[in-house]
Structure formats: structure tokens, C-alpha cells
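OP here, attaching both records as promised.
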Amino acid sequence: MAEPTAATKIWLALKRQIEVAAGDIPVAWPGEAFEPTGTFLAVSEVMTPAERRSLRASDPHRLRGSLLLRLSIPMSDKQEREVWREAAAQIATAFPADLLLEYDGQSVRVREKASVTGAYQDGGWWHQTVQVRYETSL
């Protein structure tokens, strides 16, 4: 197998930390089939194009992105919404500011502590989102 690209190494560094954050909560990974049977964590990633830092082609480029971790809880779980928000906040604690993640020589830095953002109801599900902003050099 060929050496993984920087993009793959970045994803694998992030994925490892998502697994830590999720603990026992099942994870719906992008591009993988998933049938929820209860509370789960859905993962989405948004990347911006790499930015040049200087005019020399040999200098590193900066890449920034965001992970969107959506904690989805069935409404049949008759908990107060504050309990669900706290569960999302516990996931966010796994991504403190300046956390340095690494996979096979490629490092990724969490830019600022993860934030618990908007929550909404969709059918029989309550969704609470955690946003993780990161950056790396290529």
C-alpha cells in the first residue's frame, strides 16, 4: 500500500480523537452505512482550501477546517434538554484549545476549544452540535 496522503493522515488524527470523545456512543462516520438504534454521534467535516503562506512554492501551506459532531438523541429518551446539552459538552471537552493531534508525522492543532452550538428537533430526534476548529500545515 502506498504512503497515505496528508489529507488521509489529517483525517486519521482527527478520527482517533473523535473515538476518544465518543466513548461508548456509537459513531456514524461519513460515507459509512449506519442504522441508529439509540443515541449516536454523527461526524461531518468542512475543509477550506489550503492557503499559501508565502510566495515560495516550497513553503508550507495552511489548511483550516471544522469538524461538526452532531449528538443525536431519540426524543423517547425523556431527559431534560440540559442533560443532552451536558452530554454534548462532555464530548467537547475532548477537544481543548491547542490540543495537538498526530498521525504518522502529520500534526493537527485544535485552534480553539470546541463549542457546543445549535440544537434542534427533527422528527423523533433531538440534535445537539459540537464544532471543533482545527488547522495544520501541508
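Record two, same layout:
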Amino acid sequence: MLRSSSFRTFLSLTLFMALPLHAVEPKATSSKPAAVGVLIVEDEVMTDLRQIPFELLSEAKKDFAEKNFGEAAADINAAARILRAEGRRLISSDEALPLKVVADNLDVLARDVKGQIIKNERQLDVQMSKAAYLTSSHHRIHAAAEWTRKEYRLVGHDLLAAAYALESGAKWSGKELEKGTLGVVHGVRFVAGKLIQGTGWTSEEVGKAFDKIGQETERLGKKVI
């Protein structure tokens, strides 16, 4: 059984997964409005839904280091279920396919972790970095399609999700790549936040955000694929 705050978030997520992103509302006791696409976990706490799989994978890494292989596998399976459920929310099967592939790969990884086929943290890092790369690529491509449809808030959420995945993948793939990616991640998050809030952004800075996260994601891919 998972013990982390991420697991409490995951339990909350299962209650809201069937709702469209814009339908999730804060508790009545909260005085702050919820941004589109966030899940209110506790009063005054907002967590973007698509950050949760990578929090769970981080928990899996900790559990693995402590040789809690069953708990690590459960963390990985939970991340896979969220990604698969997210894919089912998309309009077409083609859009959902990349997340399904990532989820299926994570299920295999969970089985190998539980069976102790994965022998060390480096092997685990490589597989989780691959999942992060594919997820970041998916969200970046999805954001580009939303941009052409002028769905600017959705662009912000997908860019934010791409940044979450990229940051995790860079961290797991090595210190050198993590250092080079950090500035890009922060910059993309800043622009994504403007898009989500619906104010203060320019087409030029959004274009630069797309270019930078694309370059860094492909740099990650060259290292892990």
C-alpha cells in the first residue's frame, strides 16, 4: 500500500477522472478560484492532474532504493493507470496511442520491478526516462494541435504537462542533462501559466517556448531512446 501524499492525490484523482478538466471545482471553503485543469486536493492546494504520474514514479524510485519492490511496482502501476485513463479522455485513438504505449511499458516495468528483474537503480532510471520522454513529446505535439485551433488554455496545460515530464526525465537520465534543462522547464512553465490564466502572453514567447521544449525533449530522447 502506498503511503505517500502522492497516493492521497491519486485517490482523489480517481474520483474526478471521469469529469472534463474544466468541471473540477475547488471546495466551497477555499477563497481562491481554481485554474482550468487542476484538481483541488486540500484547501488552498492545487495540483495539475498530469503531474501526478511523475510524482508516483519518483515515489517508486525511493521505494526501489529501499528494496520495497512491491510498493515500487504499485507506484508504477498507479502512474500507468493515470496515463491510460488520460489517454481515454482524448478525442481520437491516434491521439491516445502514445499515452497507451507509455502506460503499457510502465506496466511491464512494474512487473519487472516486482519480480526483481530490474537489478539496479540505473536500469530503473533508464526505463522511467523513456516514459518521461514519450510523455513530454506527446503533450508538446498535442499542444501544437491545440494552438492551431486557438485553444490557448489547453495549450498551456499541455505545455505544463510536457515540462513536468521533461524535468523528471532529465533528472532520471543524469545530472548534466538536468542542469541544462532546468532553465527551459522554468521558462515553459511561466509561459504555460500565462496561457492557463488567459492573460499576459504573446505569440512570440509561446513560439519560443515550443521551440525550447522541443529542443530539450529531443535532446533527452537522444540520450534515452
